[in-house]
């Protein structure tokens, strides 16, 4: 999801900062769909007033006792209290730059790896400490829980895994993990992913200029609709993708449910999506047992699991939501990094073309064996996730007063494990800002590399909310890389850079001219 699923809590309640960035971008002439309309100005003003009111009431509360340090709670050190606005701007300024942890790194130098900070009037404990980050993830549901504003919960649906808590979250998470675990990929996803790739990225003519970001966006949503709903018709997929686009735009916007506002459009789009999913459920039930049901998660869900109908739509919407943008942007960033590192691109291409050699006689499709024979590609994916991991931080809230080391984090306090600060820590990763996929071949890094468990490398989170789509995402990205690098060479036409705010992306969308390899 834009700004993606992992920045929301805080961030989404902070859409004002987004508006500011948007406005800045518009005035500096970078392309964006948002016109600088009077609606935005009005909305910004409203939100800013709301923000000030909130700020003042928060400050009063803190003065009047509870929640501050000094009355039993010993919060980690940091700049609390005024000037709150300063922290917030520094924070989002850093996230909008190509180096999101800049601000937290500075704070960590001053106050230590676990520090307090005030973000738009709300107290937050921020951590760049691998052990504490892991502690927070491992105690999901016990000491901490993920936290989202109500408007966001209403949009993605209260029965989905992202916003569910406790028992219900564990059940839904279990189902999701089961549907997409490694052994299921071979029979249910391997071929379908490749069909989507063949259809969506393999037919560009020689010399075509593309905006790769838009292409990846299309690939990802096609993948999601195809794999989750089992839809294969191009028209069906495009239709669904359009509803989803409206939907996602709304999730990013101010929660004003009135005609003309993106949030309203999103709510309508949500209804369309739910009824489409309802139709698909009915159709699958009619076809029960016949081969036409296909490989979609939805079909298997109906057959294998017992979820009430009204929970199914939310479940699927949550998966699409969590998987779409993360996958799109990781594909994009991988190509971006490779373009800047020709030696890595060459090695990757050789590996991928080597696979072709093996089974040139067979169909064009890659096999599971092929997928298992891509060690360097796996390094490229890991390095892309380290440098350009979409989930730069996680959002949690303390469920109870939590004692950790000398500190007590009061119930209700925001807790932010800042993953990318760990991934970009020079002490853990020498040359941390360089794209160096070979680092993952180093035997010293093998333990670190274990992305399911490593405290030092957690691009898919951890604990009870560990990304259930991790293996699927990696397969999709590997197959994307295969089809892209074996079909094309490309020339970058415009300077570009990463930003992570308001969503992870390349500011100019990565325009490239493609040349078909067969023509060279
Ligand atoms: C490169 C791609 C991806 C990355 C980097 C990524 C990363 C993450 C991270 C860090 C979390 C944990 C969030 C938290 O703890 O608050 C997460 C959760 C989740 N991911 Fe992914 N993800 C990716 C792809 C996917 C895909 C393809 C799917 C599904 C089709 C998916 C489904 C989910 C779901 C459902 C959750 C929520 C789990 C829960 O809250 O219990 N993800 N992902
Ligand atoms: C998928 O992500 C793209 C951004 O990469 C966004 O524009 C689009 O609306 C998203 N669609 C869905 C269904 O999440
Ligand atoms: C979809 O089906 C569920 C469960 O049968 C029902 O509660 C819901 O109202 C339906 N929604 C739409 C939009 O058709």
UniProtKB/TrEMBL annotation:
Keywords: Heme, Iron, Membrane, Metal-binding, Monooxygenase, Oxidoreductase, Transmembrane, Transmembrane helix. GO terms for cellular component: membrane. GO terms for molecular function: metal ion binding; monooxygenase activity. Its cofactor is heme. Heme binds at residue 467. It is found in: Membrane. It comes from the Eukaryota. It is a single-pass membrane protein. The chain crosses the membrane at residues 34-56. PANTHER family: CYTOCHROME P450 26, CYTOCHROME P450 SUPERFAMILY PROTEIN. Belongs to the cytochrome P450 family. This is Abietadienol/abietadienal oxidase. It comes from Eucalyptus globulus (Tasmanian blue gum).
